[in-house]
Amino acid sequence: MGKIVLRLDRMMVERKISLNDLAEQVGISNVNLSKIKNNKVTAIRFSTLAAICKVLKCDAGDILEYVEE
Amino acid sequence: MGKIVLRLDRMMVERKISLNDLAEQVGISNVNLSKIKNNKVTAIRFSTLAAICKVLKCDAGDILEYVEE
DNA sequence: TATGTTTTTATCGTTTATCGTTAAATTTTA
DNA sequence: TAAAATTTAACGATAAACGATAAAAACATA
């Protein structure tokens, strides 16, 4: 079964930003951002996703990906 | 403040599929899919998003978009 | 090796919000 | 008009984000 995967790494490397800094700028805890980054969440609030997109200056598609089986 | 918007319309038109049919194939209620389609939700489960992507044969970025202020 | 920094993992509790169901309202189609 | 499709509303049950804290692991630097 296909699934949605989160890929923050690429944009974080591109923006040269650490997890702690990104978490602070996004406005969520570094613990929670770590979970998001490592696909340990099964859903996401749009407010959180939008905040990430804003800080990373990217689109949702740059972070969320559908990968089929 | 930027936000995430859902755009199912385009792909639904492209795939020529009705809301009721899509809901059934995706495996969620038509009521809930209607909410998703009309941006009446503030979060989404990846299982739901993946199922939509699968049926519509598209990527997450085709459905989710970050639009800034 | 030792020390400090960053990231990840693990619990736990609170809060948010999906999703289903039912029913009603609205819009679309014929 | 009538039927079908879509949207809206209200409610409850359940799933899961998210925060806080602490601990562990990974990483870096000297």
Q: How would you explain this protein's 3D organization?
A:
- Chain A has one domain (3-67): Orthogonal Bundle (434 Repressor (Amino-terminal Domain)), CATH 1.10.260.40.
- The mean pLDDT of chain A is 96.
- With 69 residues, chain A is of the alpha+beta class.
- In chain A, helix 2 crosses helix 3.
- In chain A, strands 1-3 form a two-stranded antiparallel ribbon.
- Chain A is globular and about 35 Å long.
- Chain A is 49% helix and 16% strand.
- The interface between A and B is medium-sized, with 24 and 24 residues.
- Strand 2 (43-45) of chain A pairs antiparallel with strand 2 of chain B, so a sheet runs across the interface.
- The structure holds a DNA duplex (30 and 30 nucleotides).
